[in-house]
Amino acid sequence: MQPLLISQVSAVNSLGTGVEAMRRALCEKRSGLTPCDFETARIDTYVGTVPALDDLRVRPDLLDYDCRNNRLAQFCLEQDGFAGQVAAARDRYGAGRIGFYLGTSTSGLHATELAYRRRDPETGALPADYRYAETQNAYSLGEFVRRYLGLTGPGFVISSACSSTAKAFGNAARMIAAGICDAAVVGGADSLCLMTLYGFHSLGLTSPGPCRPFDADRDGISIGEGAGFALIEKADRARSGAILLLGVGESSDAYHMSTPHPEGLGARMAMEQALDSAGLQPRDIDYINLHGTATKTNDASEDKAVFEIFGPETPCSSTKGATGHLLGTAGITEAIVSILAIECGLMPGSANTRSVDPAMKSNYLLENRQAKVTRVLTNSFGFGGSNCSLVLGVAQ
Amino acid sequence: MRVFVEGVGLLGPGLRGWEAARRVLTGEEPFCSASTVIGASDLLPPAERRRTPVPVKLALAVGQEAFESAGRDAAATATVFTSSSGEGETLHHMCEALASAEREVSPTRFHNSVHNAAAGYWGIATRSREASTSLCAYDTSFTAGLVEAATQVASWGKAVALIAYDQPYPEPLHSARPLLASFGAALVLAPHATRRASATLELAVLPGDEKPTGMSDSGLEKLRLGAPAARALPLLEAIARKTQGDVVLDFLTEARLRVTVSRC
Questions:
Q1: How far, in Å, CA of A86 to CA of A92, rounded?
Q2: Domain formed by A4-386, architecture
Q3: Active site annotation includes A193
Q4: Are the C-beta atoms of residues A67 and A130 closer than 8 Å to each other?
Q5: Is the pTM of this model over 0.80?
């Protein structure tokens, strides 16, 4: 594929507000995970929360869209000068020439959970103030962000579980290549809700403590909430040192709805295609940001897939011990981690992991490592066997 | 962007498969609305078949029909799934459980609740390890899916299947988001004119709010407006009639997709 410029990013998650807060946390190898006290959830697990959301409201003209997920989206659009950069791009290209390809797994589902507690005792009806289109529907996030940023270009929401916002980069790349838009906003928001907490718990996949990716004693995920956005443009604007999207690979496991392929077959295909679309060899990658959820099966199969392609040398780690698993926004968040790795020469060590499972063969980093990083591969895998790998690099 | 339609799948109220429905769309037979009949798919092994929610069955059925008419191997073809409503029945049961004191949720229901459940089951059923995505653009989800599928065909130079589906919600969600009927449509799109190709589609995304193409039959027009996936109907009608001309599909509020349909 033609490389694309990532001209601006923004992030909000339990590590902090804005990309700089995230950078500091990664440098300090800090974790944002805390014991779960989300709403009325009574589950013995840790979560990564964005406490500021409780007191936020969405912009007055978008009040119909007010829900935890859109608050999170707006909070993130307000960071890192992101909305301002999009406004400048709007002046440059025109509002109709900027697409938006946004991912979420649960959108404003928490609004529906709350509405189901207030059903009419006689008729069972949902309360009159429940707004389906503006909160529950997967596209709610898309319309909210589109309106917030004043975009009129073509867009949609991708909801392929935990690969959603990684795959959004692929959508943007194809749309720009096809001439449907000149630039695109990608990313998304996924906020905490009871469905994911109780759902993952019912599958036996939530850890009672902070998650420990690749640890011999890993025992499940920590769910987190977060948002992240990136502005993507054609690379002819890229100056030396700018961050580029170099490759995208997408595949399906065709194996099971909630368990990854044991040999990591789909994961391997996604990584190989990402390298292929970037025109790179495995040795060209300096660091791999893994999906690394800290479930027994994910980490084992991902390790197999990574080892088969990259062998025992290429440093890799998961940052989910720091952020928790941000589900639909894992992809954009870890793309931003990858950008920080390049910009700061930092390969982040795995927060909360004590000792690497001896069965793992890849070069898994427990401690932060300072080194020159020019190209990073990042993995995102989701329910339904949906896999996506991205390759990011620096412009020469 | 230009793509070639190799196969079509269709299920809707009174529209029992593409072969039968095309006679309705060409006007040879009248449109008589009746409940959408979604047969049990033989694509999945019996154990999985029992666990699949209705929207997944609907998506699998129209996808299967489109691949059969295209004569293509589903295992080697990428897919774009698009739905406004997603997994309504599952969502309802999950929210009901979460509103109860016990909060006992079913793990199977949870993994079936994701918007890409149909894509996941499709992969298991067809053994396709090709790329698959799952989209939503509210009432214009079909258009979003068609644009995405066409850009995939253009980017990869390979066939891609588009599978659009919407299943009405149970109450109380139905009152908040009433959908008229269960509707699914699938297209297998190829980069070149193959022997199986029946129509050429030339796609252009346009700014503006031009009036989208409607259906001349009032029953079909009601269906088009009543179920997001049924926004495909004017395009399917043009393919069935083998006519040459433009179909305008709405794409969100401030853009349109013009599809120039011709025989090939």
A1: 10
A2: 3-Layer(aba) Sandwich (3.40)
A3: no
A4: no
A5: yes
